[in-house]
Design a protein that fits this description.
Length: about 350
């Protein structure tokens, strides 16, 4: 017993040590293999991006951006003349203003600020048209759901108010939302474009304009006149989209058509733009005066003061100064924009069966 015990202990210890080393080595090998064989999937960014680009909303935004860029490239000279006349710079008639620009800056002067204008219009039209489509569908869908499921009602004495708001036009709500969000996002580019157009001597380039504006008023200078701009944009945008959809649907019913032809789109878009511009033009004049007032050393306190100043100095006709030039710009711009937008939607949506 005395001899066996040490032998057993020695054999046990040796075997135990050897076994332990072998096990340790195998465990390390297994852990090493497990470490490299762990399943890890790299995110497929390209596929995710393609899926996003296939959505209806993104394609509508892209259609709006392309339509805006193509329209502005064609109509930049009219935009330059319109801006000069609205803010009271140079001649009071279209032909005179046109000749002044050519004499002072050459033909290229008609495209002054067009680079900034293109940078402005691409995101503006993308946000505006995309937002209009999305909000209009959302409001129409919400109203339909409420009608089918029974809309809630607010009882006030003998009066009952239908909270589904059936009298609210989804198109009008979509138009207002389109104008609000596009203006809020792209207003700094509008301010910059106006500075380059109205005073090219003081603001010869984009970097110089940005530097001077920041030095004069900081970040707030880029949002100069944002309040009046929103006030002026909301009635214009609401009326513009409401008129377009109303005229389009009425014309299709009267002519027994399913959709508008390209020439029909030009006509309907032009009439819609002219109507909306005429209704909101006094607010547009006051807005422009506020935005560039600092360039002339005098800036009204607010929109009401600007309107009062215009009437006092120029009479009621002053509220529509530049309306002719504006109409020449707005009508083709609206018509061409809708024509290009509907065409791009057909290419990007209908051909791919996106409804």
């Amino acid at each position: 017993m005395t001899q066996k015990t040490p032998t057993q202990k020695k054999s046990f210890c040796v075997m135990g040590d050897a076994y332990g080393v072998i096990v340790a080595a195998k465990e390390l090998e297994i852990e090493k293999e497990r470490h490299f064989d762990l399943p890890f999937q790299v995110p497929d960014v390209g596929r995710a991006l393609k899926n996003v680009l296939k959505t209806r909303e993104v394609r509508e935004f892209v259609s709006g951006a392309l339509a805006g860029a193509m329209t502005k490239a064609v109509l930049a000279p009219l935009e330059t003349i319109r801006t000069r006349m609205v803010v009271g710079v140079g001649s009071r008639n279209i032909a005179g203003s046109f000749m002044e620009v050519i004499e002072q800056q050459g033909w290229q002067g008609l495209w002054t600020g067009n680079g900034v204008n293109m940078l402005r219009i691409i995101p503006t039209q993308a946000i505006e048209l995309g937002t209009f489509e999305c909000v209009t569908r959302a409001v129409a869908s919400a109203q339909e759901d409420l009608r089918q499921n029974g809309s809630p009602k607010l009882e006030i004495g003998k009066f009952s108010i239908d909270l589904s708001f059936p009298w609210v036009s989804p198109v009008a709500v979509g138009g207002a939302a389109a104008g609000f969000f596009s203006t809020l996002a792209c207003h700094p580019l509008e301010v910059l474009k106006d500075r380059l157009t109205v005073s090219p001597e003081a603001y010869p380039s984009v970097p110089v304009a940005l530097s001077k504006m920041y030095g004069e008023g900081g970040i707030g200078a880029l949002y100069a006149g944002i309040g009046p701009t929103l006030i002026g944009m909301l009635p214009y945008s609401t009326c513009y989209y409401f008129m377009y959809e109303t005229l389009k649907n009425s014309y299709c019913r009267a002519m027994k058509k399913k959709s508008l032809s390209r020439s029909d789109m030009l006509l309907v878009g032009a009439v819609s733009g002219l109507t909306a511009s005429t209704i909101s033009f006094p607010l547009e004049v006051a807005r422009k005066r506020l935005m560039v007032g600092s360039l002339q050393g005098k800036c009204p306190v607010n929109m009401a003061a600007a309107l009062s100043e215009i009437v006092r100095q120029e009479g009621l006709g002053g509220l529509y100064r530049g309306w002719g030039a504006s109409s020449l710009k707005v009508m083709p711009s609206s018509g061409i924009t809708w024509m290009f937008y509907e065409a791009w939607k057909e290419i990007l949506l209908i051909d791919r069966h996106i409804r």
